[in-house]
Amino acid sequence: MDNYKQLLLANKAWVLEKLQIRPDYFERHAQDQTPNYMWIGCADSRVPAEDITGTEPGELFVHRNVANLVVHTDFNVLSVLQYAVDVLEVKHIIVCGHYGCGGVKNAMTNRDFGLINKWLRNIKDVYRVYHRELEAIGNEQLRFDRLVELNVSEQVQNLAQTSIIQKAWKKRKGPTIHGWVYDLKTGYVKEHAEMNSQSALDPIYRFDFDGPRSITPPTT
Ligand code: CO
What is the pLDDT of residues 24-76, one digit of tens each? Predict the structure, then answer.
């Protein structure tokens, strides 16, 4: 589809289709949103969150970026996360990666891609942590697939390491965080990781919300 007007025509057809099923379809959605799920997915055009999960407008609160990363200094993902967790009080957060992810594949190379090098660097860091496991895999395709899976698991950890999630776990024992991988070739999703308020967290990343907040001054 190279004619963008096709999209506007499709929009009109979609509106009519929804109104036929339910005349108040749009009025109902315009009131408010109460999604139970937050989705963090890849920007890849072949991984449409709602289609994959059979969800309707109003059910998924979506954030997408290259290679579905949760970067602890990225105000974009953190803002979406805070709103989803504190205001919408979602029950589940799904990080969904996918095999054949261009972001992950490019991060495995030594090529210079310009600005996006800085984003892909986060995936290179995942590679470094698991380099022994990855380099023991002789087949390049299987190594690539494994890094896609490890990247998802790391993003689940990255979420758990935020004060946003830890505060919510303390307050309401939720949300549960899921790491999924979508297979472009079959359409199926596989579960790879899960963390909840009972999960073990590396102690260095654990916040003590009741302790003193001031930073200790250096002693000389
Ligand atoms: Co991707």
Answer: 999 988 888 899 999 999 999 999 999 999 999 999 999 999 999 999 999 99
Give the model's pLDDT for residue 1: 55
- The C-alpha R_g of the chain, in whole angstroms, comes to 20
Considering the domain boundaries, does residue 173 fall inside one? yes
CB 90 within 8 A of CB 84: yes
Q: Annotated catalytic sites, by residue?
A: 42, 44, 46, 98, 101
Provide the residues around ligand 1 (an ion) whose CB is within 5 A: 42, 44, 101, 103
**Residue 198: Cβ within 10 Å count:** 7
**pTM confidence score:** 0.93
DSSP letter, residue 218: P
> In the chain, where does DSSP find H-type helix?
5-21, 25-31, 49-53, 75-82, 102-107, 117-129, 131-135, 140-160, 163-172
Maximal CA-CA distance, the chain: 75
- Please report whether residue 140 resides in a domain: yes
What CATH number is attached to the domain comprising 96? 3.40.1050.10
pLDDT in tens, 74-89: 999 999 999 999 999 9
